[in-house]
Each structure stands twice: as C-alpha cells, then as structure tokens.
From TrEMBL:
Keywords carried by this UniProt record: Hydrolase, Magnesium, Manganese, Metal-binding
The protein's required cofactors: Mn(2+); Mg(2+)
Name of the protein in its database record: NUDIX domain-containing protein
Organism domain of life: Bacteria
Length: 214
C-alpha cells in the first residue's frame, strides 16, 4: 500500500523524495523498528521542507535543556498522539502549531515514512513529510519546551564537512550533523540522513570526526 498522498503543485525538487519515501521500508532507515507487541507509545514528527534563500530547507528546533526526555536535543516538531488526533498527520500538525506556531493551512502533507522506534522512551514515531508552501515567521511558543527554532538549508546538511559520527555513552555510533551551532544526532539525524539520500542531495563523505555525547 502506498503512503504517497499527493504530488499536486510540488516543486520539481520534491518529486524524487516524495516518490521514494512513499515506497521505503522501515528496515531501510534504521534497525530500531517498533516492537511487534504494539505496546510502544504512538507519536509523530513533522519533516517540514520549504524553499529557502539557499534552496530547500528543513525546520528544526532545539528542545529545552530542562525537559525530562530528549533535553537539549535538536529535533523535528512533534510529540505524543492525543486521543482527539485523527491520525499521525493530525498529531504532527498539532504539535508543530503548539511548539512553533505553525499555521496548518500553510502546509501540504505529501507522504509519511514507515513507523520507527525510539527505544529509550519506547515511542513509535511516524515521520510526516510535508511541503511548506506558504512559509511564515515561526518562534518558540513555549521556551520551557523549545529553546530555539531554525530553518536549515539541506545543502548545509549535505555538506560533507558538516557530517560527523555521534557516539552515545552506550557505545552506539550513528550519523550526526554539525550545523547552525547545533549537533544533530540520534533519531533526528538518522531521519535527516534518509531524507538527503532519498531526495538525491547526499554527497560522498568519509566517516571522520567522532563526537562523543555527554
């Protein structure tokens, strides 16, 4: 079953990403897939791509250092599904509105990626890919949850000099990006690496700098 929802009025650069993302399987993204027993907490994130001054960009935010989970980490807007949310798309749009003031009418949802798993918190996460056709000013609505918000050019993320390997205290090593004064790692970095690959933006890079996480 395809997850490709719409291609209407998308810029040319969007199409390879949309078509490939609609067909990808979870195991092509990560080895961390939701447990089959279904006890993981449902949640969703919004991967919001827009046309910026330096080409396509993606919306990222830095979570507050005082949060209980994922404190201080760069991430996509998103969170846990609430009872009134009709589906993961509704969750992602609601959370983005609450966190950074995103106007849902400025967004065209294109497709979703397969459900992934954040094992530390036992979240089953649905990444929602969307076209920000009418970008508008955004800001942190609640500084207690979000310390800053940024639109990061995909060309910066694809730059080999920005690519790092992030080593967790557990010993796990995953992809990372040193960009906009942020070290993007973990779940968010893994999804971003997939977006770059599917969209044709990824550049060859030598696994080099190893960044140890606190």
């Amino acid at each position: 079953m395809t997850r490709y929802l719409t291609s209407t009025n998308l810029p040319t650069w969007w199409h390879p990403l949309a078509e490939r993302a609609a067909k990808i399987e979870g195991r092509e993204i990560t080895r961390f897939l939701p447990p089959k027993n279904g006890d993981a907490t449902p949640s969703a994130v919004l991967i919001l791509l827009a046309e910026g001054g330096d080409g396509p960009d993606v919306l990222l935010m830095q979570r507050s250092a005082t949060l209980r989970h994922h404190a201080g980490q760069p991430s996509f807007p998103g969170g846990v599904t609430e009872p009134d949310d009709a589906d993961p798309i509704a969750t992602a749009l609601r959370e983005a509105n609450e966190e950074v003031g995103l106007d849902p009418t400025s967004v065209t949802v294109v497709t979703t990626l397969p459900d992934l798993w954040i094992n530390v918190t036992n979240y089953r996460v649905t990444p929602v890919l969307a076209w920000w056709h009418t970008a508008h000013p955004i800001l942190s609505i609640n500084p207690g949850e979000v310390s800053s918000v940024a639109r990061v050019p995909l060309s910066d993320l694809a730059d080999p000099i920005r690519r790092v390997r992030a080593r967790h205290p557990s010993g796990y090593i995953g992809p990372g990006f040193d960009v906009n004064g942020m070290l993007v790692w973990g779940f968010t970095a893994g999804v971003l690496a997939t977006v770059l690959r599917l969209g044709g933006w990824e550049q060859p890079w030598e696994p080099g700098r190893l960044h140890d996480l606190a």
